[in-house]
Amino acid sequence: MTGEGAKPLILIVEDSATQALRLQHVLETEGFATLCAYSGEEALEEMNRALPSLIIVDYHLPGIQGDELCRQIHMNLTTRSIPILILTADETQSTELHGLESGADDFVSKSDDVDILLLRVHNLLRKSRRDATMIDVARSLFRRARVLIIDDSVTYRESLASELREEGCEVVQAVSATEGLRRLGEGAFDCVMVDMVMPEMDGLAFCRELAARRDDAEPPIVVLMLSAYEGKENVQLALEAGADDFVGKSTEMSVLRARLRALLRRKFLQEQNERIIEEFRVREMEALRAKAEKEAAEARATLAEGLARANRDLEEANRQLRETQVHLIQSEKMASLGQLVAGIAHEINNPLSFALSNVFSIENWLTTVLAEAGAGLAPDLAAKLDKARARIVDTGQGLERVRELVVKLRTFSRLDEGEFKAIDVKEALESILLFLRHKMSDRIDVIRDYAADNDLSCFAGQLNQVLMNIVANAVDAIAEKGTITVRTAIEGDMFAIAVRDSGSGIAKDHLERIFDPFFTTKPVGQGTGLGLAISYKIVQAHGGRIQVDSEVGRGTEFKVLIPRGLVG
Question: Which of 227, 284, 380, 453 makes a 20 to 30 Å CA pair with 413?
């Protein structure tokens, strides 16, 4: 875990890149260090490298689910004391109950206020630090929990006591906070469940008085605050006063029992950890002798393994060398392909200019003949000549479009080179719009708003792929008539490229997943779900980011931000 004075490290286990980034922003703004893992398997690998102070786990994960990840973490002696907070979009009490039963220390819905999430995080970290230094090693995990209930309502107190006895707890009751403090002085308890609102001394004052009386040598007592007033403000007051958790009295008993079990489980696990450590110390001397006997054999085995590893490393180096040679050959082929495309475009240009010149000459001649002959021509002949002139005009316009396409083709031949260089982003966008014009026809109007300076240093071919994906998606998003707005701008030290469409927009629950591989909202067979995932990785490799702004029925805007000071 983090050392003295260092920022607490929080591991975020979330398969949605968008949600993970949002959590990172909230937690790092609060002053924490963060680390992201996008699956349970990746989280376990991260913990092999560095132990976090706290783990935030999405309940629904690919592969290992969130509850199963909790169980695996608690099965390991090194990680079992790390507090775990489950985060989920499923707000049913059955999901909360299942998550707490799996070993999580707390449970927060994704729809909860950010302040509630931060309160839970601070509370778990505070209790974790306290538990790490104040443990009674004489107490065993396998014992009956002793619970003190303080509540001035006889009916609720008796009902709660009955539930806890069924849970296997030893229960003692008190009708006031004053009596509760006296009971605590007469015997040891594992947990106190105290009502927040009581005459004379309320639950908040009780917590403060308990903290003031507490001896550091004594084992910690878990405090669970109860209240019929379940607002955010009361949760904050309870946790700040020193309570370990807050539960509303309207909560189902099954959930309340699960939260109590989670608190007691953490307390007992800390005690068990200390007991196991003590047992390890007793056996340490025996282990040292066995270790000395093994060292000679291990040294010989290490030498043999070292030689084998050196051979494997040599084979791997040779394999990488062969792959590098293949990549170099492929790069040379791509460079040759770019030169070939540029050469073909150049060769087409001359005969194209010749054809255009002849077409325009014929058009001018026919125009002159029709003008000079006037009414002297037979009507049928005049109509045929006029029709021929119109077809020649159409042919000339078609050839002009071909010439424009040749120009853009030469531009693309330069953009497709994989090298790092400066490009004209406006020219790249115009080339893409030209290539997609057949899909837009007359149904889509394009609005352009380019910056004064459109030069950007980047990996040209990769950025071109990103822009092609985003503009093509904008075209596909417009079912009938609509507009696409293409804009470039300088925003601080970033070059911004924005593409907005007037299409149907993206549903809110899809926004978190649009950059996930193989996720697509298009009909089956019309999309692989890889375009935006690849684009996200390319922009990330440039040190930039992609922002998405969308609303159902009002269109979508993708904004690509690339650092202007990139060096290849």
Answer: 453
Q: What's the pLDDT tens digit per position in 315-329?
A: 776 777 665 555 455
The CA distances from residue 1 to 8, 98, 120, 132, 387, in Å, are: 8, 28, 19, 12, 84
* CA dihedral angle for residue 248, residue 251, residue 254, residue 257, rounded to 10 degrees: 0
Residue 262 lies in a domain: no
Residue 535 has pLDDT above 90, yes or no: no
Kindly state whether residue 269 falls inside one of the protein's structural domains: no
The CATH number of the domain holding residue 51 is 3.40.50.2300
Exposed/middle/buried for 213, CB within 10 Å: 0-12, 13-18, 19+? exposed
Answer positive or negative: Cα dihedral of 6, 8, 10, 11: positive
Q: What share of the chain is helix, strand, coil (3-state, %, to 5)?
A: 55, 15, 25
First to last CA, the chain: 37
Residue 539: closest CA among 561, 554, 557: 561
Q: Which residues partner with 551 through β-bridges?
A: 555
Whether pLDDT at 280 is above 70: no
Report CA-CA distances (Å) from 70 to 48, 309, 359: 16, 35, 76
Beta pairing class for 455-459 and 420-424: antiparallel
Would residue 141 count as lying in a domain?
no
Domain around 314 = 277-407
pLDDT of residue 7: 87
Neighbours of 381 (CB within 10 A): 10
Type of residue at 153: S
Asked if residue 468 is part of any domain, the answer here is yes
Both tokens of 27, joined, read 């937690």
Residues 197-252: pLDDT tens digits? 998 899 999 999 988 887 765 677 889 999 988 888 999 999 999 888 899 888 88
Task: Please check whether residues 98 and 228 belong to one and the same domain.
Answer: no
Angle at 237 between CA 233 and CA 242, to 5 degrees: 150
The whole-number pLDDT of residue 92 equals: 65
Chain centroid, CA 196 distance in Å: 38
Q: Between 28 and 350, whose confidence is greater?
A: 28
Backbone φ and ψ for 193, nearest 5 degrees, come out as -110, 115
Q: Which residues contact 199 (CB under 8 A, 6 or more apart)?
A: 152, 176
CA atoms within 13 A on the CB side of 563: 10
> How far is 398 from 434, CA to CA, in rounded Å?
14
Chain-centre distance for alpha carbon 460: 27
Instruction: Tell me the pLDDT tens digit for each residue of 97-142.
Output: 666 666 778 888 888 788 888 988 988 888 776 554 433 333 333 4
Tally of domains within the chain: 4
User: Measuring CA to CA, which residue among 524, 526, 517 is closest to residue 477?
Assistant: 526
297 and 236 both lie in a single domain: no
484 contacts 447 by C-beta, under 8 angstroms: yes
Query: Both 89 and 204 in a single domain?
Result: no
